[in-house]
Structure formats: structure tokens, C-alpha cells
Amino acid sequence: MPIISFVASGHVLFMDAETRRPVACIRTSAGAGGLRQAHMSTPSPDETYVTVANQNGKLFERILTNYKTGAFVHDPAATLNRAADLAGLAVDFARAELAPQAGGCAGAVGCVLASVFAAMTGGTWSRLKACRNEGCRWAFYDESRNRSARWCSMQLCGNRTKTRAYRTRRARA
Ligand SMILES: [Zn+2]
To answer: What range defines the domain where residue 26 resides?
Structure first.
């Protein structure tokens, strides 16, 4: 089955080889800076999924494929699930947390994933954000009461961004 990746729109198109008709069109996830591009799509050796390099979104994505039934399902959590597999994340009941069984780089990534999982189940995940200043993108914890913080620091990135927007508006006027 021909698979076409679209860089401009970030779509992956599956086509029937005989009829040349589109069978499925999957939109990749928006990643870093809201960008999405599908630079390359490669079927797995067992043909149960397709990996997609979403370069500008800084994502490596997976689409589950069943060519017999024509089912194509975007699996946005695939990269994290695979990283958790490689880290061998296991429940440590004594410490009431997830702990990586692997060492090295996979284990280090596993420690980060364990913290992410704890934040997701603990309800604080939505407070962990990336600074809206494109030149910064620093990760920060939003401690505001209504969870509306947009910058890592109002004094630095907040004021800079607002000043820049003000100058742009004045230049246009
Ligand atoms: Zn910032």
C-alpha cells in the first residue's frame, strides 16, 4: 500500500495500490511551537504500524495499521509508551512510585517519565508548561491560582513579549 507523507500539512495518506484511491488520511500531532510536518513514514517489518518522523513537531509518531480491515489509528502516546517499555518502569510499592529497572539513558528517561506519570495522576500535570516566549521555551510550574501563567517569568519573558507586541503595534500605526 503506497504511503505518502505531507511535509506542508503534516498528513499521512494511505492509498490502495490497485485502485489508487485514498484509504485513510491521518493528521499528525502538533508538537513544539504548534508545528506539525510528516517528513517520512515507514511501515514496521510486521506491517502492524507505520512510524512517522514529525520533524518540526519534534515528535516520532506511530499509526497503527490493519490493511485487511482498513483500520488506521493514530497512536499519539506511542513514543512515551515505548520509552516506558525500554526503561522497564515497574511499580515500587514500598516507595509508592514507578521506578525504572533499566540503567543508563533508558533509565534516566524512565525517571522523567515516572515524574510525568505522577504529575498526571496527581492532577498537577496541566500546571507544567513551556514558556510562550519562542526564544525561551523554558519549562516552568504554573503556581497562579487560575492556572493562567504564560511565561516562565513575568519580569523577564512576560514584559519582553508585551513590550515587543506594543512596539509592533506602534510601528504599524
Ligand atoms: Zn521564558
So the answer is: 3-75
Question: Please, what's the b/e burial string for 116-149 (b: 16 or more CB within 10 A of its CB; e: otherwise)?
Answer: ebeeeeeeeeeeebebebeebeeebebeeeeeeb
Q: What is the pTM of this model?
A: 0.60
Give the distance (Å) from ligand 1 centre to CA of residue 116.
21
Measure 162 CA to ligand 1 centroid, in angstroms. Answer: 12
For the segment 72-113, what is each residue's pLDDT rounded down to a tens digit? 999 988 888 888 999 999 999 999 999 999 999 999 999 999
Length reported for the chain: 173
User: Do residues 107 and 152 share a domain?
Assistant: no
Tell me the CA–centroid distance for residue 151 and ligand 1, in Å. Answer: 5
**How many separate domains does the chain show?**
3
Cα(149) to centroid(ligand 1), Å: 11
CA of 141 to the centre of ligand 1 (A): 12
